[in-house]
Amino acid sequence: MKIFLTIVVIILLVIVAIYAHTLFRGRGLIWHQILKELDIPEKSQVAELGLNYAGLFVLVAQQLNAPGKVVGINIGKPEISQREEKRITENRVADRAKIVDGDLLNLPLENRTYDYVFSSFSFHSVKPAINRGRAIQEAARVLKPDGQLVIVDFGPINEYESILNNMGFQNVRVVSTGWIGWWGGPWLGTKVLVASR
């Protein structure tokens, strides 16, 4: 019995350690790699939907120069706006970073304006599934015809691939991030969707 309990405790500790690694380090590694591969031009217009990964918003702003700008859509969490406004001030990027309160189903952004639209762990929480489809349509609406949509998330990300294909996106790919994106284990892994028309 002691051996069994010891094994259970070890397994639980490993699961917690993997989860903590993804939460505190893995997400950053994933986004750093994405941004490196995208090599975003400094005058780009970028929208980040959800602001669910602290640090991404300012990280993008630091890669831009005015008139390049990143607009972050805060989805109803005042503490996130306060956190990111503080980061904007501390990192001196106010000339190229702006936060707007909004809704993923009705983005307060103009059509075909953004070179890049990013979402980090936001879409999985949109329910029911039909609303996720609407949120994906909204993300596509604000994207320039030659822009790129990048979604980092877990959950039903393959749904988004078929929705985008039906909307006329020609180049949609979904890749797993491997163990650095595991939320406790491979049963809940992070994937990256990249789409362009």
From TrEMBL:
InterPro entries: Methyltransf_11, SAM-dependent_MTases_sf, UbiE/COQ5_MeTrFase_CS. It comes from the Bacteria. GO terms for biological process: methylation. Residues 57-151 form the Methyltransferase type domain. It holds the Pfam family Methyltransf_11. One of its GO terms (molecular function) is S-adenosylmethionine-dependent methyltransferase activity. Keywords: Methyltransferase, S-adenosyl-L-methionine, Transferase. The keyword S-adenosyl-L-methionine applies. PROSITE patterns: UBIE_2. This is Methyltransferase family protein. It comes from Limosilactobacillus frumenti DSM 13145.
